[in-house]
Amino acid sequence: MELEWKNSLEAFFDYLYLQRGLSKNTVLSYKNDLKIFAKEMAKKNIKVNNLNKNDILSYIEKRRKMGFSPRSQARFLSSLRSFYKFLQFNKWYDKNPAEEVDTPKLFKALPKFLTFEEVEKLLLAPDTKTSKGIRDKAMLEVLYATGLRVSELINLQMNNLIKEIPLLRIIGKGSKERLVPIGEEAFKWLNLYIENVRPSYNKNFGSFIFLNNWGKPFTRQRFFQILKEYARAAGIDKNISPHILRHSFATHLLENGADLKSLQMLLGHSDISTTQIYTHITEERLKKLYDKFHPRA
To answer: How far is CA 121 from the centre of its chain?
Structure first.
């Protein structure tokens, strides 16, 4: 029996979303990678169950010439492997041609982060005499105080906030729940926004905490634009992104004595090896400080 790409992929995407509980963004990444690949294979009349190693290698080489990074190639290959594992599990096909292809070697770049002084400048950039400024200040303070992913920040709902402690109940990657404390300063601005500003934005009586001028939750792209605007206003000459504040949160905690296990829990990393990259940052900084200030360096 010949397996068609369209039906097989739709079953796989349903499985990812409904049974594995992956986030919409993660499923979207699988979809983007695999749908483009399936379209290419269909043009060559290559079915799901007659794909071979050389077909995959040719496709990867084509992507390389188009400028795709090793990280993008590795993600595609991981998506394809998962798809064929799904077919094997359901006994629809007994081979996994993607397992025969080596994953491209990745250079693991150290995460970029802001210094504490740069963070302070950024947090002071919104004009807190305006409703917009109070809202944006609250968003930036919460992001830095908690190390949330941007998708977690913009999807925060009122029932995620436990005011009495205060804590945020976060549903992260893979629908895993974690509790993250909010610092005093961040909670002050968040509470000010919720009590005095949010009602004027909440035209649809929605449950999202952070609302745009139309009373809707922010998109990731819009929040990215807002962050860049404040970084420019603060005179921060770095290619800034929401994830840089997450990296800054992690780096500054480690530099001030936090242990790796606690940091892993706060960031919502399933594997501590993901968290360990931050130790390399602090080691690099210590070495630079030593080289700069020690008389015998």
So the answer is: 24
